[in-house]
Amino acid sequence: MYSIATIAEVTGAELLQPGDTGRSIAHLLHDSRAVTFPDSSLFFALQTARSDGHRFIDDAWRKGVRAFVISHEVDRNAFAGASFLRVPDTLAALQALAAWHRAQFDLPVIGITGSNGKTIVKEWLQQLLEPEHRIVRSPRSYNSQIGVALSVWQLRPEHTLALFEAGISQPGEMERLARMIRPTVGVLTNIGSAHDEGFLDTEQKRSEKGRLFEGARAVIGPEPWTGLLPQHISWGVESGASLHMVRLEQGTPTLVQAEYRGVPVEIRIPFSDEASVSNALTCTCVLIYLGYSIDTINERLAGLQAVDMRLQLKHGAGGCTLINDSYSADFTSLQLALNFMAQQQTGQPRTVILSDFAESGSAPDRFYPQVARALEGAAVGKAVLIGHDVTRHLSLPPSVEVQRYASTEDFLEQYHPAQFHEETILVKGARHFRFERIVAALETRVHQTVLEINLNALAHNLKQYRALLAPGTKVMAMVKAFSYGSGSSEVASILQFHHVDYLGVAYADEGVALRQAGISLPIMVMNADASSFDVLVEWQLQPVLYSFGILQDFERYLQRAGLQAWPVHVEVETGMNRLGFSSVEIPSLARHLQQTGWLRVQSVFSHLAASEDPAQDGFTDEQGARFATMVAALEAALPYRFLKHISNSAAIIRHPALQLDMVRLGIGLYGVEIETKQLELEAVATLRSTIAQLKRLEAGETVSYNRRGVVKEASLIATVRIGYADGYSRRLGYGVGKMYVNGHLAPVIGTVCMDMTMIDVTHVPGVREGDEVILFGKPLPVQQLADWIGTIPYEVMTGVSQRVKRVYFQE
Ligand SMILES: *Cc1c(COP(=O)(O)O)cnc(C)c1O
């Protein structure tokens, strides 16, 4: 904890308004949505290309925060008694404070960088070294310019070892991270092509990454290192490698025969995939450097657990929403998980299931009151406490219902499905409590086919498109048809969190569902009709007016209801010939809108018919020109301003001149780029199922209805739990479609049935009943599936039926 006065000195800030300069600061904030300890928090108003933290000072103030670091003037009269520290650059000040805090400690610090595997190597080192050490580490994958500052800030006198990640995407960034981390040992996981965009070449990236290691005593990693470092411990097949690999036998465990300083050693790694083996070898070299014997290393490696840091959101029994974070229990990750829970606007009461905490050991009296405040701050109504420490030391106010269990087994023995009903439940436990068993008990398992939605990928795709927009261009995210099949309120919550400006739906019902889930963004309804005006108005939705018919109906409705200046959108026809006012109607529309007091035009838009098609670029330009003319007439008539928009996903990439005031982003958000390959999008939805049964058939036998799937040689056939009723098209039958099983593509054999489909897995090694099958997703693009049956990804994605359970992930 440092006083405001000290922090002002360290950051070289000007104390514009002193407030209480003796106030102790324990928490650094940059997101006003995540306030837990307002009294002891310092808010940094960070400025990025897209957002300005100064805009959220008011929000933080209302939540009780009284200390702020700013870089430009704010109306301080509104915040009497608060401390305001002014600096030229708020991010630099945050980093300077973190660097200064780091300098107060003298302990081994392992700095980890590389293109992939940073988080896994960090988590594994934590698993391997925790018997001897009190470790502080970056939460999750906090490795950015902000994340590193917040990670370093967690350093306390009781720590004996630090593990910090550093991630960079552009030249010049590492120096700033290095100043905060100041590693005594450096780890370089690898140099791949990931995040290449900001670098001239791999060499530049390597030298930039090397910056992290400038003050380190040793560097460890798979690549030969040519810096001027006193010590380098590498692994590899070249004879120069410190851990020189002679033989590798992949399996579980994978056996690595190697020589270390001329002595033969065998290393056993409990994973078989290449990435895990590589990460485990890097960890092995770190342990060798720290003086561990090969025997101890092998013992520890045997207990290594896969790292799944993803926050999972899924539907549980009894209408509950489950947030599965059963990988770790430390205070920072609890706060992150509670924020994630708050972000899910489920409207349900909040419950947590909590185990003992890793860091509570030495000072439970100091630690657990913090946990109690965090739970209170997140409006948790019910707490299920499991474990010796947490049940004894965590005391919660009487308003919270508390249940206590000595162990996970105890809980499971007494668990009854009626115990939880329509609650949002955060399941958060330290690894050895094995809370995944609790998650399994709370889940409903009716049908083993799921559509998995990766919310990080969604946010990533949004960012990719935003990078193409001119500053100030707004984004309307199209979430019609259950967000192109990906589920509605969960997707909309993430979009709201990432500050899109508008949401677009097709029908009023879809908008109502979003409002009921707590979405407060403005919502445009493209296809409203007279029967839906009541709900439109009740739920604050904004209809599209595309003809005089609907305009007059709506106006009459507003008149009767006595509502003035209702926000509406006007669609004009430029060539799609679907909905919209035609050019000849524009003069009378303009006159009408000029006079009416019932409507207030928020935006005028049109839809492009072929923005993805180079052969139609002439027509697209013509649509743009027609739109400009029609808009000009409306602009001349209306006494106020409105937004203009015409671009869909493909147009954002192919027709930047048509970005105008706003773009309507649809399919690209879900990870599909039509025609172009300019962005690095990530698949958002993965459709998975499982194998119900395997059969060995002889040549001549047939499979499925009407005997149209004929087996030509002795074959192994798998029955998969998906059919056309789930949205797996019958057109994929007879070998047209393929499914992804254990890394191979297996063709569909015979007719697709209503609930099941058979595939030929004769040539897929090691298939077993219960194995997972991927229908589309990362390894099998939805575009490919669409191509097989001559349709477009839109149809495949929206065709996944509602009986397929949606499961949401956030990393
Ligand atoms: C669906 C839709 C979009 C989004 O189109 P994508 O090709 O998915 O980006 C944009 N505008 C309107 C009017 C739409 O109906």
TrEMBL record:
<feature type="binding site">
    <location>
        <position position="754"/>
    </location>
    <ligand>
        <name>substrate</name>
    </ligand>
</feature>
<keyword id="KW-0663">Pyridoxal phosphate</keyword>
<dbReference type="Pfam" id="PF08245">
    <property type="entry name" value="Mur_ligase_M"/>
</dbReference>
<dbReference type="GO" id="GO:0016881">
    <property type="term" value="F:acid-amino acid ligase activity"/>
</dbReference>
<dbReference type="InterPro" id="IPR000821">
    <property type="entry name" value="Ala_racemase"/>
</dbReference>
<feature type="modified residue" description="N6-(pyridoxal phosphate)lysine">
    <location>
        <position position="480"/>
    </location>
</feature>
<dbReference type="InterPro" id="IPR029066">
    <property type="entry name" value="PLP-binding_barrel"/>
</dbReference>
<dbReference type="InterPro" id="IPR013221">
    <property type="entry name" value="Mur_ligase_cen"/>
</dbReference>
<dbReference type="InterPro" id="IPR035911">
    <property type="entry name" value="MurE/MurF_N"/>
</dbReference>
<comment type="similarity">
    <text>Belongs to the alanine racemase family.</text>
</comment>
<dbReference type="InterPro" id="IPR036565">
    <property type="entry name" value="Mur-like_cat_sf"/>
</dbReference>
<keyword id="KW-0413">Isomerase</keyword>
<dbReference type="InterPro" id="IPR000713">
    <property type="entry name" value="Mur_ligase_N"/>
</dbReference>
<dbReference type="GO" id="GO:0008784">
    <property type="term" value="F:alanine racemase activity"/>
</dbReference>
<feature type="binding site">
    <location>
        <position position="578"/>
    </location>
    <ligand>
        <name>substrate</name>
    </ligand>
</feature>
<dbReference type="InterPro" id="IPR001608">
    <property type="entry name" value="Ala_racemase_N"/>
</dbReference>
<feature type="domain" description="Alanine racemase C-terminal">
    <location>
        <begin position="684"/>
        <end position="809"/>
    </location>
</feature>
<dbReference type="GO" id="GO:0005524">
    <property type="term" value="F:ATP binding"/>
</dbReference>
<protein>
    <recommendedName>
        <fullName>Alanine racemase</fullName>
        <ecNumber>5.1.1.1</ecNumber>
    </recommendedName>
</protein>
<dbReference type="Pfam" id="PF01168">
    <property type="entry name" value="Ala_racemase_N"/>
</dbReference>
<dbReference type="InterPro" id="IPR011079">
    <property type="entry name" value="Ala_racemase_C"/>
</dbReference>
<dbReference type="Pfam" id="PF01225">
    <property type="entry name" value="Mur_ligase"/>
</dbReference>
<feature type="active site" description="Proton acceptor; specific for D-alanine">
    <location>
        <position position="480"/>
    </location>
</feature>
<feature type="active site" description="Proton acceptor; specific for L-alanine">
    <location>
        <position position="705"/>
    </location>
</feature>
<dbReference type="GO" id="GO:0005829">
    <property type="term" value="C:cytosol"/>
</dbReference>
<dbReference type="GO" id="GO:0030170">
    <property type="term" value="F:pyridoxal phosphate binding"/>
</dbReference>
<dbReference type="InterPro" id="IPR009006">
    <property type="entry name" value="Ala_racemase/Decarboxylase_C"/>
</dbReference>
<dbReference type="GO" id="GO:0030632">
    <property type="term" value="P:D-alanine biosynthetic process"/>
</dbReference>
<dbReference type="InterPro" id="IPR036615">
    <property type="entry name" value="Mur_ligase_C_dom_sf"/>
</dbReference>
<comment type="pathway">
    <text>Amino-acid biosynthesis; D-alanine biosynthesis; D-alanine from L-alanine: step 1/1.</text>
</comment>
<dbReference type="Pfam" id="PF00842">
    <property type="entry name" value="Ala_racemase_C"/>
</dbReference>
<keyword id="KW-0436">Ligase</keyword>
<comment type="function">
    <text>Catalyzes the interconversion of L-alanine and D-alanine. May also act on other amino acids.</text>
</comment>
